[in-house]
Amino acid sequence: MTVRAAWLQSTGQTREDTRLTLAALLTPSGQSEAETPLRSRPGILPGGFVLTGSAPMQCTIGTGRAIVQGKDTNQGAYLVAAVTPETLTFEDGNAQYDRIDLIELVVLDDQYDKTGVTEATIRLVKGEPAAVPVAPASPNGSALPLYTVTVKKGTSAGTGGITWTGTGTQVTTQHWPVVALGGILPTSGFKGAYTGQYRDAGGMLQRWDGTTWVSYPKALGGVAPSGTATGGYTGQYRDTATGLQRWDGAAWQYAEGTAKILFGATQYLSTQQQSVSPNTWTVITLPTVEVDDTGSWNGTNTYTVPRTGWWRLGGHVTWQNDGQTGMRGARILVSGSGQPRLTWLGPAGNGAITIGGQGLIRLTAGNTVQLQGYQSHTSAVKTLGGSGYGCTLHAEWIKA
Question: Which of 65, 198, 248, 253 has the CB geometry, 3.0–4.6 Å to 400, for a possible disulfide?
Answer without folding.
Answer: 253
